[in-house]
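Render this sequence as a predicted structure.
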Amino acid sequence: QVQLVESGGGSVQTGGSLRLSCASSGYYNCMAWFRQAPGKEREGDAYITKAGTARVTDSVKGRFIISQDNAKNTLYLQMDSLKPEDTAMYYCAAAAYCRWSNEYLYWGQGTQVTVSS
């Protein structure tokens, strides 16, 4: 059983930055960040393999960077140039392999990000 605990969410204005962290009790080959806005489906923003192969979606490309510290079993999401449409609950997830669908084995409890205009 892998436990994931997110932190770093908060309220910022448009153009601001936040850095999310996800502390894991273990590490799977793939770690990812998803978001879920009220009334919308959960969707992936970024994922990274244990070897360091990282991908982000087009909607956050150039603004979000996913990274990890394998020694600390911690996943990060640096979020810059935030927009109001980035407002959502952000979840950390773990799985044996990476994909954009939300079929991940383990999930954190989420951390809220709110971007005001």
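Summary. DSSP finds no helices and eleven strands in the chain. The CA atoms of residues 35 and 41 lie 9 Å apart.
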